[in-house]
Amino acid sequence: MVRLLAGGGSRSGWRVHGIAAVTYALAIPTMAVGADLACNDAAPGSNVQPALRLLAEADCYRSNGEVVRSLDSLQAALAAVERRDSATTIAIYARVGQLQLSLGNNTAALDALSRGLDLATAPEHEDSAAGLLNDLGRAYIDADRPLEALAAFADSARLAPAGQLELMVSASINLLRALAENRPGSALGARLDAQRTAALALPVSATKAEILLALAALYREAASAESPAADRAARAAELARAALALADQYDETALRADAYGELGQAYAAQGDAERALRVTREAQSIAQRAGLTGTLYRWEWQAGRLLHGLGRTGESLQAYQAAIDTLGATPIAAVTSRRAFQRDVLPLYEEYADAMLASSRGLEGAAADAVLADVQRSVERLRVAEVRNYFENQCSVPDVGSAAAAGTDALVIYPLLFPDRLEILVSTGGSLRQFTTDVRLPELERTIRLLREAIEDGESGASYLVHAQQLYAWLIEPLHAVLEQAAPSTLVLVPDGALRTVPFAVFHDGERFLVERYALATTPALSLIGAVNVEPVSRVLVNGLSAPVQGFAALPFVTQELDSIAATMPSRVYADESFVTATLEREILAGGYSIVHMATHAQFEADYRRSFLLTYDDVITLDELEDVMGSQRFTDRPIDLLVLSACQTAVGDERAALGLAGVAVKAGARSALASLWHINDESTALLVAEFYRQLAASEGRAAALRGAQLRLLNEPRFSHPAFWAPFLMIGDWR
After folding, report:
1. pTM
2. pLDDT band of 664, cuts 50, 70, 90
């Protein structure tokens, strides 16, 4: 658990995010709130400015853990504050920034903190600037902007008033944390020792305990990077014990759990696993009794690691499973930052899957099936969590339940990327099989990147073949026996990591492409598809831009693309000037369409807020797409298929590819046809026309796409994979 120092108000609300500015220059009227007294009844008297009353009300709600109501009061305070009262405005923005950080709303936090800092540059408000800069540094860390974070923490430590020692030390420790994470190899020894001296000299308080725990974590991590390791680990344990004493003194339950947990990690760094396990169990017990699910899963996870190291495999797997169950009951995976997800969520699932796969070796029959079924459930939960984290929303990505049955004509492939090997889990006919390929992750990722670069360039000739054949050898060749036995018509891929950035259709066995043997589909998680409910196409809402608009290039063959759809299926067409956002919204809300087709520029970025679809007069963000199309999700005729024929994701951008894979889920459609990169406009028109022709002939969606891709593959001008390979059938393939 990484601890960036945060504070102010109720610390428990922000502990998972760290410690921020401890005090502000503005004195807020105190509020003594009894158990039966509402915050808005407890505000100071009428002689206090309305903005200050609302600010005090917000602090009351915050101390009670009512974060949303606190934000509402702060927004009201912002509207009520007098124009010249910069001090109150700064205090409001500071609190809004902290609350938005606690909710994982990083963009809103950056906006509020930046606005507050703009006002705090005036000489009379310099005392407020240090706290805002410290919180701004935390927001920059979450936004993966490390250089700006380093500068903000350094400025905060430099500008902290002499009377705000806790803030000065907090910012200095945050700076060391940012250096450790973003500049590997930084020599922190002397600077750590200086901050240890400063931290131990701070006045006794619960905030001091948080500072000591943050410092303990840095010492512990330095123990594995700098010598002498034993001394660093001992210092970490010493600081954790000091924090525990303060937590006991101030009766801070959450701090006690954190202190025991950190002490467990320090003892583990010293090589004393049994002692580490004992105090970790204490952290678990405290967190469980207090209902601290946000940290409980961390101590369950820590126990799983320790038990694994002690060779107690059964108990270790139980601890890992408990951690996954606890985490799944919280919104942490959805609201945490991308960086925090990679650090605090993803490894838990991967370690559990790794341990379970190891335990399955040598097992046969029902015992092996049970273990692999657990692995599949864990992988499905992880994939759903990844999509929720991308869209930063728990509700946008409903979990349909257990992995849907693929049927007898489909075989589901889960590639699992580990540092030292590739594991492949295969589901067919209700049974699961496990395969292992001896390839290290850097080599696999390099081959994936080279393939993507080669096939995206239509002038690359056959240079892609060596990479396409190598990936086939690693991922498909080990499955030959089960493929021959099952004889599926469709392969359904649930890709992991960099594999999301390349189309499996181009994998090559030396004679033929994979798409020449099977129809292919991809899905972020099988459990997001749900039961089969295939109905005849009612109407297609066809939209497209052929003209250049808003600085984007013309797509001259879009007119041909739209005409071919209208000639094949019942359609309503909106092109160029008539393809405007208001019309799209009106038509979708009116209902009656089973397919929505958009032949327009679409960009998918690592940050979903920067992803968009282009209309003639505007851009549609993914949130706006969800608002419009998602409204049909719970009707008796939801959108069945979303077609985006001119998408673009960056080479090697796994997160952007994850967004593309999740677009159907976000939009409330059962499936989506989309492209990994923008393709030649003429070839796209031909592929789309053939796709709809085959779909109208009652072919399944993946089968219709395969037929369209084979049509281009057999067309000499468009036989290069650059023209046909990037199209993916995402979600329900049937």
Report:
1. 0.86
2. confident
Distance separating alpha carbons of residues 79 and 64, to the nearest angstrom: 23
Residue ending a domain, among 352, 373, 397, is: 397
Q: Containing H/E element for 148?
A: helix 146-159
> How many structural domains are present in the chain?
4
Do the Cβ atoms of 19 and 207 come closer than 8 Å?
A: yes
Show the tokens assigned to 128.
Answer: 């407020």
Outline where DSSP puts E strands in 429-584: 431-437, 490-493, 519-522, 540-544, 571-575
Which tokens belong to 104?
A: 């994982």
Task: Examine residue 309 and state whether it is found in any structural domain, yes or no.
Answer: yes
C-alpha 36: how far from its chain's center? 39
In which domain, by residue range, is 661 found? Answer: 540-731
Do 560 and 494 reside in the same domain of the chain?
no
Give the strands of the sheet with 602-603, arranged side by side: 619-621, 612-614, 602-603, 647-648
Q: What would the pLDDT profile of 183-221 be if each residue is shown by its tens digit?
A: 766 778 888 999 999 999 999 999 999 999 999 999 988
Residue 392 sits in the same domain as residue 288: yes
Q: Which two structure tokens, joined as six digits, stand for 86?
A: 């910069």
Instruction: Indicate whether 633 and 492 sit together in one domain.
Output: no
Which residues partner with 573 through β-bridges? 542
User: For the segment 449-465, what is each residue's pLDDT rounded down to a tens digit?
Assistant: 999 999 988 788 999 99
Quote the CA–CA distance of 395 and 411 in Å, as a whole number: 29
